[in-house]
TrEMBL record:
Keyword Acyltransferase: yes
Protein name in UniProt: GNAT family N-acetyltransferase
Similarity annotation: Belongs to the acetyltransferase family. RimJ subfamily.
InterPro entries (alphabetical): Acyl_CoA_acyltransferase, GNAT_dom, N-acetyltransferase
PANTHER family from the UniProt entry: [RIBOSOMAL PROTEIN US5]-ALANINE N-ACETYLTRANSFERASE, GNAT FAMILY, PUTATIVE (AFU_ORTHOLOGUE AFUA_3G00765)-RELATED-RELATED
Keywords: Acyltransferase, Transferase
Domain N-acetyltransferase: 14-180, 201-368
SUPFAM superfamilies attached to this UniProt entry: Acyl-CoA N-acyltransferases (Nat)
Pfam families with a match to the protein in the record: Acetyltransf_3
Species whose genome carries this gene: Nocardioides jiangsuensis
Length: 376
């Protein structure tokens, strides 16, 4: 039986080609990698015989049966020698539809190889195979896969609960779509977390070792008084969910969150965020302090640093916003001190806008600040 000929695609640096037996060792190495095992359905354990069967039978079989168009990715290593870098494929769903799939060998990660490979693959699928719609699926939490999809212009259309099977479980899945008519560029920003150094605090990204401090802050009675909707009890898992939410804000272009840390110890003192960001227009600030950091001016200084970053133009690393808003319960004098010290102007009163932990309801005082008014 004559197998379909697998085309060779190249952008001059990265090449897509048919798999051959020389790729088996690279496939085997990739499937021993913990990240590959965590986020894909590769069998565990995975043997060299499995790798040989993948390159000799599974990938050619996809082409023969017209169910999956899979390519080996080849790219130069540090010495310029061409090397197996992973696999990309389009799974044929018929009627102009396909699912994109990809996996990188560990050595190729962080080099831009897979982005280039997928650009080649998608262009071929749309132009040569007449595809109209390509769908992307990933296990919820696979930020590396999501970032690649974002970079290539895929939408993010939501989370489908218990959808993707993996080793006897059904996992929550992210899903997105790219149409032939779509531009293959990001649809919105994916914000980085810049390190910002102040006189007495440092703003940095969240880390796993921050979770106990987040839990301590959110178990504190004063914190809970002002944040009535905090889960009860507040566990380490709740803290992890909170940190995942900060990553979600950055990935969706809707905000950035920082840990406010002690410059000497790097220990979390507080948290501050810009959320509900409307790109190039506006955002809202929110913050809380660990009980051990109160009364030290930590959130006041952090707020000033974040305001400055938010109003800085994008071409010099800021958010390029024109307006910031913030609100506080009328009776929360500490929070209102932070806001007013940083130059925010009171704009109104939201009647019965804040529900407190004891069940009482008080007005929320609303403030804003314009970039044109910011002088610090």
């Amino acid at each position: 039986m004559r197998f379909p000929e697998v085309p060779t695609l190249s952008d001059g640096t990265v090449t897509l080609r048919a798999h051959h037996i020389g790729d088996a060792e690279g496939v085997y190495e990739q499937c021993q990698d913990p990240l590959s095992q965590e986020w894909t359905t590769v069998p565990i354990p995975y043997s060299r015989d499995d790798a040989k069967r993948f390159v000799r039978e599974i990938m050619p079989g996809g082409w023969r049966e017209d169910v999956e168009w899979g390519f080996a990715v080849e790219a130069p290593d540090d010495d310029g020698t061409p090397r197996f870098a992973g696999t990309v494929s389009l799974r044929n769903e018929r009627e102009g539809r396909a699912e994109v799939a990809f996996g990188a060998h560990p050595w190729a990660r962080g080099r831009g190889v897979m982005a280039r490979a997928l650009e080649l693959l998608l262009a071929w699928g749309f132009e040569e195979r007449g595809l109209q719609t390509v769908v992307w699926w990933a296990n919820r939490g696979n930020w590396a896969s999501r970032r690649l999809a974002w970079q290539l212009g895929f939408s993010l259309d939501g989370t489908v609960r218990q959808w993707l099977p993996q080793r006897g479980e059904l996992l929550d899945a992210w899903v997105g779509v790219l149409l032939a008519s779509d531009e293959r560029v990001p649809r919105h920003p994916w914000y980085a977390v810049p390190r910002i150094v102040g006189a007495n605090v440092v703003l940095r990204g969240h880390r796993p070792d921050d979770l106990p401090r987040i839990q301590e802050a959110c178990l504190d009675e004063r914190t809970r008084h002002w944040f009535a909707d905090l889960p009860d009890p507040y566990t380490l898992e709740e803290a992890r969910t909170y940190v995942d939410g900060r990553t979600e804000h950055r990935a969706s272009g809707s905000g950035i969150g920082w840990v406010v840390a002690d410059p000497a110890t790097d220990v979390l003192l507080a948290n501050i965020s810009v959320f509900d960001v409307k790109h190039g227009r506006s955002g809202e600030i929110g913050y809380w302090a660990h009980p051990a950091a109160r009364g030290r001016g930590v959130t006041t200084e952090a707020c000033g640093l974040v305001v400055r970053h938010a109003f800085l133009p994008e071409d010099v690393g800021g958010l390029g916003l024109q307006r910031l808003t913030v609100g506080a319960a009328e009776t929360n004098t500490a929070s209102r001190h932070v806001i007013e010290t940083n130059g925010f102007v009171q704009t109104g009163r939201e009647r019965a806008g804040s529900r407190l932990r004891d069940g009482s309801v008080v007005d929320t005082i609303r403030y804003d600040l314009l970039a044109s008014e910011h002088t610090r």
